[in-house]
């Protein structure tokens, strides 16, 4: 594996700054899941479509907070080249997984170029068990996978069917990392062994993608007429690299993050044939390896000539930067002085635990209630 960041400094805030960043992200998601998302759960049993729209906007507003910290506090610079996004498009985003926090560093790109509220991320199922952030991601309807396709397939199908139901009709931007994990020495070794077994080339800047889940996901979206295109995104870190959460805690941040975007309209893809779609994905990863090789061995710039539209949205960023710290202070104070609020908070925590144990998470409870209401209406008719 090539070391892309040799002799390149991070933009550090020190361990205190890093610890405050991580604490802020955790506590705002924890309080938000309890005191903002919690009251919305009643809507699941009354107007599921309204619940989905309200929660998506709440989660999108929270996502602006880490974006604000990255841009205004850590002063990370983001650069985008290529095709960009259309606000109204339903798309699957495929991206190389260089670090464990690529998803967070991608949020600014989507915020400035598209709509955060439409975002659903395909994640490891372990993340749903994290108090606070995991609860919020469940409520957001993120797709959690066990990485065993036999078990994941029914859940993915049910969730996509739910989002595409005419009564919900929620257009999606699905973020998927086909490599399944981030690039490390260990994961590269496993990827190289797979390449040797399959007679494929070994890569230095990416891992060989897992094609089964991707091809089935795209096929199901096409059959539901719920996808307009695929955005192939390559991320590069020319100045600094966050390898994992420990780097965040230590206050390390990249000085720059670069994205190269290629848009593929769905009618130009071999979506009717899963084997051909698998080959298409493998070919894109071969091209991604070459693109990243040029990126890191030249002037650390992507060579795309187009510059997508970038909406600065500075007002939203400053509002989030002011609101969420204030929200922490108000919630902490109210918990200290109000016994009723303490009981409410405890009840909300019990609800999240119950939903996880009984249904597998809030997102599965949401689907189960919707299906029960749908069946009830059918019987009335």
TrEMBL record:
One Gene Ontology cellular component: endoplasmic reticulum
InterPro entries: Acyltransf_C, Plipid/glycerol_acylTrfase
Any GO molecular function: acyltransferase activity
Biological-process GO terms, alphabetical: phosphatidylinositol acyl-chain remodeling
TM stretches of this protein: 20-47, 59-80, 315-338
Keywords carried by this UniProt record: Acyltransferase, Lipid metabolism, Membrane, Phospholipid metabolism, Transferase, Transmembrane, Transmembrane helix
Domain called Phospholipid/glycerol acyltransferase: residue spans: 91-215
PANTHER family noted in UniProt: 1-ACYLGLYCEROL-3-PHOSPHATE ACYLTRANSFERASE-RELATED, LYSOCARDIOLIPIN ACYLTRANSFERASE 1
Family (UniProt): Belongs to the 1-acyl-sn-glycerol-3-phosphate acyltransferase family.
Identification of the protein by name: Phospholipid/glycerol acyltransferase domain-containing protein
């Amino acid at each position: 594996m090539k070391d892309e960041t040799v002799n390149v400094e991070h933009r550090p805030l020190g361990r205190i700054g890093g610890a405050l960043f991580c604490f802020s992200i955790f506590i705002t998601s924890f309080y938000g899941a309890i005191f903002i998302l919690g009251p919305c759960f009643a809507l699941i049993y009354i107007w599921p479509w309204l619940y989905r729209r309200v929660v998506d906007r709440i989660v999108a507003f929270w996502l602006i907070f880490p974006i604000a910290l990255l841009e205004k506090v850590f002063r990370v610079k983001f650069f985008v080249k290529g095709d960009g996004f259309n606000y109204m498009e339903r798309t699957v985003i495929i991206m190389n997984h260089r670090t464990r926090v690529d998803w967070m560093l991608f949020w600014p790109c989507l915020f400035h170029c598209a709509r955060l509220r439409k975002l659903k991320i395909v994640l490891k199922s372990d993340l749903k068990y994290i108090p606070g952030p995991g609860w919020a991601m469940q409520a957001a309807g993120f797709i959690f996978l066990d990485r065993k396709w036999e078990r994941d397939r029914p859940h993915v199908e049910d969730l996509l069917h739910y989002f595409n139901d005419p009564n919900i009709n929620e257009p999606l931007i699905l973020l998927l990392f086909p490599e399944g994990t981030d690039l490390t020495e260990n994961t590269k070794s496993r990827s190289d062994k797979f390449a040797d077994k399959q007679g494929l080339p070994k890569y230095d800047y990416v891992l060989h993608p897992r094609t089964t889940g991707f091809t089935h996901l795209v096929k199901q979206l096409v059959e539901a007429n719920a996808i307009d295109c695929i955005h192939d995104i390559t991320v590069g870190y020319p100045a600094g690299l966050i390898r994992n959460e420990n780097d965040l805690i230590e206050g390390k941040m990249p000085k720059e993050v670069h994205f190269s975007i290629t848009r593929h309209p769905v009618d130009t893809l071999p979506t009717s044939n899963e084997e051909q779609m698998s080959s298409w994905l493998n070919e894109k990863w071969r091209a991604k390896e070459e693109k990243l090789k040029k990126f890191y061995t030249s002037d650390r710039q992507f060579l795309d000539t187009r510059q997508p539209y970038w909406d600065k949205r500075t007002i939203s960023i400053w509002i989030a930067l002011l609101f969420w710290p204030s929200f922490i202070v108000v919630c902490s104070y109210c918990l200290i002085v109000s016994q009723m609020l303490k009981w409410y908070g405890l009840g909300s925590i019990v609800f999240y635990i119950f939903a996880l144990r009984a249904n597998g998470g809030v997102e599965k409870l949401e689907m189960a209630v919707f299906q029960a209401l749908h069946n009830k209406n059918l019987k009335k008719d």
